[in-house]
Amino acid sequence: MMALGAVVCAIAVASAALALGPGEHRLTNVTVPFAGRLRVALSGRRAEAAAGRCALPLMQSIHAALRSGLPLVRALRVAIADLDVAARTPFEQALHSFDVGARLDGALREAARASRDRRTALALEALSLVADEQLAASRSAAVVASVADRLAFEDRLVEEIHARTSGVRAQIILLALLVPAIAAYLAFTLPGLAATLMTPLGLGVLMPGALAFEIAGIVASRRIVRGVLA
Questions:
Q1: 115, 134, 153: which is the final residue of a domain?
Q2: Is the pLDDT of residue 160 over 70?
Q3: Whether residues 103 and 141 fall in one domain
Q4: Rounded to an integer, what distance in angstroms lies between the CA atom of residue 9 and that of residue 87?
């Protein structure tokens, strides 16, 4: 899915370059802020995806720690110690709130509401329930194990869906690249078309319209795939 974001970026930058003409400063003024916002958005998406991928092994580690008799807070600290920084961030934020005086169940619930990854939110909500009910270690382990089983099933389901939709996603990327490639080829081989695109009609209507339809198609395709995976 990150590849489609890169395709959108490439199409937008190429269209901006064609629309703005050879002015280096004008192109820089548009593309630099856009690239910065895109980099931040993609970094946030990668961090959330990393946390989601680690939700299952995290819950399995917490389950093992609870089975050994550790309290929930200690079990959570031990479980996140082996995760990378991006994956453990939402859990570390909840623990930090707990360290400064917040209730653990409330801190976990707030972290779950702030998370945009469904698997991470599910893990945080389950841990919040365990903390709120103040269950014994054995009962807490049973709750965590049931959530881990659900996450394992969902991971297998997502892998199967990804495998079945890989061809569709490849076609989306190919079609997204094909349209601007054809447009660029025609603009270079047909001087009349290039001259038309550089007129006020081309710069103000045709190229922005083509860019809008291209991005709308990519976004719609991504939402369809995400809807299947949700």
A1: 153
A2: yes
A3: yes
A4: 26
pLDDT of 25: 46
Residues 6+ apart with CB under 8 A from 20: 26, 27, 30
Distance of CA 130 to the CA centre of its chain: 28
219 and 7 Cβ atoms separated by less than 8 Å: no
| Residue 130 clears pLDDT 80, i.e. is over it | yes
Interatomic CA distance for residues 141 and 69, integer angstroms = 9
What is the reported pTM? 0.60
> Quick one: CA torsion of 35, 37, 39, 40, rounded to 10 degrees?
170
CB 218 within 8 A of CB 7: yes
Domain final residue pick, 111, 134, 153: 153
88 with 16, same domain: the answer is: no
Whether 56 and 147 map to the same domain: the answer is: yes
Q: Which two tokens stand for residue 173?
A: 């990327």
| Cβ contact 55:120 at 8 Å | yes
Domain residues for the domain of 28 are: 2-46+157-229
Joined together, the tokens standing for residue 215 give 């991005």
User: What whole-number distance in Å separates Cα of residue 188 and Cα of residue 206?
Assistant: 17
Placement of tokens 């001087």 in the chain = 191
Domains contained in the chain, number: 2
DSSP secondary structure code for residue 175 in this structure:
H
